[in-house]
Amino acid sequence: MRLGFSPNTLLSQSFSSSLLLPSLVFSLSNSQLLPHSRLHLQHPLSLKTNSSGRKSAIIRMHKVDHTIESTPVNLMAREQEFTEVNRNLYPNVEPYSAGFLKVSDIHTLYWEQSGNPNGHPVVFIHGGPGGGTGPSNRKFFDPEFYRIILFDQRGAGKSTPHACLEQNTTWDLIDDIEKLREHLQIPEWQVFGGSWGSTLGLAYSQSHPDKVTGMVLRGIFLLRKKEIDWFYEGGAAAIFPDAWESFRDLIPENERGCFVDAYKKRLNSDDVEIQYGAARAWTKWEMMTAHLLPNEENIKRGDDDKFSLAFARIENHYFVNKGFLPSDSYLLDNVDKIRHINTTIVQGRYDVCCPMMSAWDLHKAWPEADFRVVADAGHSANEPGITAELVAANEKLKNIIKNKGN
């Protein structure tokens, strides 16, 4: 569909009683609107008669800062679902309970709960693996509606032992999530995860589909060889050659046939300084490429030796072992197990860490899931456009649950 506007079209910097138009192509001469922009209409169309007696439409518009590309299937219906929901982060809340759960003879996990103790449970699955959780993770959820559960996976964050690789596999983590659910006496819960969190979220949901009420997944990572090769063997270097040099140069030329293996050697060295040096280089490479625009605060995380060691060692451990999945296409092959679960997939168009090919492949295998492409974003959940869609996706699931209760 194509809409033509007269020169009388007025741009406005504020709006009220907004109506959201989906990603339509507008022919606006001499405007700053990008193709496929999403526009808020200040009020419905009005008609004005010009000097020739011809009626033309006048629309007051507000251009949003972030554009969303939507798939054509049921486009209008899906856009309408997202029209009125909140897209802003909620204020920070403090945990009302926290503790440690021993999940094996080696590992103990940190967990916390915030929000409404009697609310709908949602579990936040952090990225990495090895990234850990933080207070800002709570802000994606309405604390009056959700019972918000955060936990640090084996070896990450406050869980102990720190950066430990022993008894640390995808299947161990899936079992841990179930142990935590049972420990907190939660019958079923919503799953929220991005990057590696989307990987583990998919794997957990496919293993326990009856325990999942809905999913929000971001920055899809299916842990296939081509995804690892893209980011760690030189593909992403075509976009970030400056950041790549530091990652590359730590490894001698004669070991550059496989950077993941070369880093494994150093991240598991007997010399702790070699471990830290490799961990800093590995972590900074990811932090420098995680945003569409450089984020200095995020990059500085690579200077934190404790964080970097867990992040780099555990990531590398999982990637060397192909995520401990039985086949390269395992997560795609098992979509039928979760096809019935209400799910939103949020993907940054210019995600370099987890390029959109993976989200697209998941979308093609699972067209029933709502697929939201943020046109002006990279990988991070903290980029404004992605943040807005993640909050909106949680709001959508909240409304579904509320409507079921009526």
Task: Write a short abstract of this structure.
The two termini are 37 Å apart. It contains 12 helices and 17 strands. The protein is 33% helix and 19% strand.
How would you explain this protein's 3D organization?
The chain is of the alpha/beta class and 406 residues long. Helix content is 33%, strand content 19%. The protein contains twelve helices and 17 strands. It has helices at residues 75-83, 170-183, 196-207, 225-232, 241-249, 259-267, 272-289, 296-299, 305-320, 330-333, 356-365, 384-405, and strands at 2-4, 10-11, 19-20, 25-27, 39-41, 46-49, 55-58, 60-63, 68-70, 97-102, 108-115, 120-125, 146-151, 189-194, 212-218, 343-348, 370-374. The strands form four sheets. It has a nine-stranded mixed β-sheet, with helices on both faces. A hairpin with a 5-residue loop joins β10 and β11. α2 crosses α3 (196-207) and α6 packs across α9 (305-320). The longest helix is centred in the C-terminal third of the chain and has 22 residues, at 384-405. The chain is globular and about 65 Å long.
